[in-house]
């Protein structure tokens, strides 16, 4: 379980996360909604230890991410997919996927390559194992990024606006893969502006506003008139996003 207790993060005088309490249990798909600057991406970066908290705590399966001696153990439990792909340009798709399992988990090369090949096939990229990122479309690169995260066999998949840099067709490709992962029981914390997709795949929806947690509700309740929509700020946000 990912446990977030009173998480607070500041950048100078700006409080980006303000006392966030959140629980992510295995098997859940939790979408995080909110306007730009609400703290969504910072939350993901704090969970994987890329940003240090100024207050509160975050643990992943009991490993405190603020403790340097436990951070690597926490990171082994979760895989992160970023909005800008972050693939190594000098490595093929196969090499990008196998690097971390071989270096961090000490998986033998043959086993790592077999896993990577199977993952690429699962996302429709069986013929692109030896392609470099520059030879792939944006949607294909993002699918490689998802494979890279899954190759570490994480218990939790953290997704930070993974479709924001893609055109509508490429976005549809990536969302289809994520829907399959959700259907297969993959635990996901999904930061997104794809409102309808969040409605379809999420077990819960979290809403952040100016660093504060305004709502943490089952999906049906979040989108109900007497649930999340009863809060003016959430209703305002959704009306703008669904026009």
Can you describe this structure?
The chain has 243 residues and is α/β, with parallel strands linked by helices. It has a single domain, classed as 3-Layer(aba) Sandwich (Rossmann fold). 38% of the residues lie in helices and 25% in strands. A six-stranded mixed β-sheet has the order 6-7-8-3-9-10, sandwiched between helices. Strands 2-1-4-5 form a four-stranded antiparallel β-sheet, covered by helices on one side. β1 (2-11) and β2 (14-24) form a beta hairpin. The model has no long low-confidence stretch (mean pLDDT 91).
Helix/strand layout:
Elements (H helix, E strand, L loop, with lengths): L1 E10 L2 E11 L4 E5 L6 H8 L7 E6 L2 E2 L3 H10 E4 L11 H11 L5 H14 L15 H13 L5 E5 L7 H16 L3 E5 L3 H7 L2 E6 L2 E7 H4 L9 H10 L2
Parallel strand pairs: 3-8, 3-9, 6-7, 7-8
Antiparallel strand pairs: 1-2, 1-4, 4-5, 9-10
Helix pairs in contact: 3-4, 3-5, 5-6
